[in-house]
Amino acid sequence: MITVTIPNFGLTPFQLTSVSLKRSSPCNQVSIFRCPLALLMTDDQKRRCDVFDMHNELVPYADAWSWQKSIVEERKKLIDSDEDLCDSLVILQHPPVYTLGAGSSEDHLKGIKNYYRTERGGEVTYHGPGQLVMYPILNLRYHTMDLHWYLRALEEVVMRVLSSTFCIKASRHKGLTGVWVGDQKVAAIGVRASKWITFHGIAVNVTADLTPFKQIVPCGIQGGQVGSIKELLRESLSSEECGEIHYTDYELVNTTYESLIKEFSKVFQVELCIKPISLANFLEKKTSPVTV
Amino acid sequence: MAMRLWASKSASYLKISVFNRGFATVLKDLKYADSHEWVKVEGSSATVGITDHAQDHLGDVVYVELPELGTAVTQGSSFGAVESVKATSDINSPVSGKVVEVNKELDDSPGLVNGSPYEKGWIMKVELSNNDELKTLMDSDSYSKFCDEEDAKH
């Protein structure tokens, strides 16, 4: 059992690169340095989390998936020798894709043949352009070693975004993990934990075309409805007759992204180090996530 | 669940000991890993499952990913997974050896892990390759204490 404590043995701690939510200069290299478990703290004692920002990129599902798995495997090996990497968060969009969880029923695919069977929890879902997907790779030993807590925390991030940025009141439905506005599901969650390292995560419909959800039984909920921030704003604006307010899809996605990472840092009490990365660089470096 | 979490957070802030599910069953004759799997050894064969403490933390298990027959398992490494409420977590083997039987009942009735974690909810049987590894596992008293300490931390 690994216990994380603040070290008190007189060694100079690592100089970490960021203490606040500021952008680091765009890096061409994915750099995550390894250090002893106890030293992954920033100057004001919040745990550091690297954010690989591809919120305007369409990252092929297979590449994002293999990148996550390689980081998780690396961290599991390091943990055996009492080291670790920083927590990280990847935020991106995917080209259209259907995915199933480990125990998902293929019946919910309604005949769709092209999909990924993954190791996450949860049922079938769709990812596509206009949907922001967050894959936090967290060591829950630094947070709370409780998967229920983790799911509620992910939901909390999105609920706060909807409330603080868009004045949309969201809720949880008991027994149905995810974020709901009324009876529409706006964010879906499916995670995997391996030795308390999480991967997969949460997908938020911002401006996504929701038609592909009609081809499946989303999240295995028969008759379940799916919503998006764009549609919800459209409904609330048209009902309030507050004049014309135009958000481009691009603006909506960017605003949601900014709000998501801000709320993520608050809910998980982490200091974020933003690393914008181009898709080309990500694909080039994904096979070697650890460089010092 | 939320009440328990609130209670334990408040308790740890106030530095008082938490009244929690210290009633999770721990069976005397089994050995335990710190990742909350149990093993029952009979000669060179072992039955493996997850503990009452683990199933209680997980909540309703909706799916169990069973290993293939004949797979080699290594102590401390993942051999399968359990899913509850959209989260799948690895289950790690407390012993090394070869999988000789898996509990197919769990395909249709994953809830057996919750209802009967030490009997009907068993997950796999392993032909042990190294009986010495058993010495690294905890007995029931040590495991009970371990669970109490872990729960007190969060």
Count of domain modules of chain B:
1
Number of strands of chain B: 9
Quick check: average pLDDT of chain B? 85
**Annotated CATH architecture of chain A:** 2-Layer Sandwich
Estimate percent helicity of chain A. Answer: 25-40%
**Content of β-strand of chain B:** 25-35%
CATH class label of chain B: Mainly Beta
Q: Which structural class do the helices and strands of chain B define?
A: alpha+beta
The CATH superfamily of chain B is RNA polymerase II/Efflux pump adaptor protein, barrel-sandwich hybrid domain
Structural class of chain A: alpha/beta
Overall outline of chain B: globular
Which sequence of SSEs, written as H and E, runs from N to C of chain A? Answer: EEEHEEEEEEHEEEEEHHEH
Name of the top-level CATH class of chain A: Alpha Beta
Strand content of chain A: 25-35%
Protein name (chain B): Glycine cleavage system H protein
Subunit structure (chain B): The glycine cleavage system is composed of four proteins: P, T, L and H.
Main location (chain B): mitochondrion
Pfam families (chain B): GCV_H
Task: Provide keyphrases for this structure.
heterodimer; A: 292 residues; BirA Bifunctional Protein, domain 2; 10-stranded mixed beta sheet; 3-stranded mixed beta sheet; 5 helices; disordered N terminus; disordered C terminus; B: 154 residues; alpha+beta; OB fold (Dihydrolipoamide Acetyltransferase, E2P); 6-stranded antiparallel beta sheet; 27% helix
Mind explaining what this structure looks like?
Chain A: This is lipoyl(octanoyl) transferase. Chain A: Its EC number is 2.3.1.181. Chain A: Residues 83-272 form the BPL/LPL catalytic domain. The complex is a heterodimer of chains A (292) and B (154). Chain A is of the alpha/beta class and 292 residues long. Chain A has a single domain (17-30, 45-282), classed as BirA Bifunctional Protein, domain 2 (2-Layer Sandwich), CATH 3.30.930. Chain A contains five helices and 15 strands. In chain A, strands 1, 3, 5, 9, 10, 11, 12, 13, 14 and 15 form a ten-stranded mixed β-sheet that branches. Chain A is globular and about 55 Å long. Chain A starts with 21 loop residues before the first strand and ends in a 7-residue tail after the last helix. Chain B is α+β, with helices and mostly antiparallel strands and 154 residues long. Chain B has one domain: RNA polymerase II/Efflux pump adaptor protein, barrel-sandwich hybrid domain (OB fold (Dihydrolipoamide Acetyltransferase, E2P), Beta Barrel), CATH 2.40.50. Chain B has a six-stranded antiparallel β-sheet. Chain B is globular. Classes of the chains: A alpha/beta (292), B alpha+beta (154). At the A-B interface, helix 2 and strand 12 of A face strand 6, strand 7 and helix 5 of B.
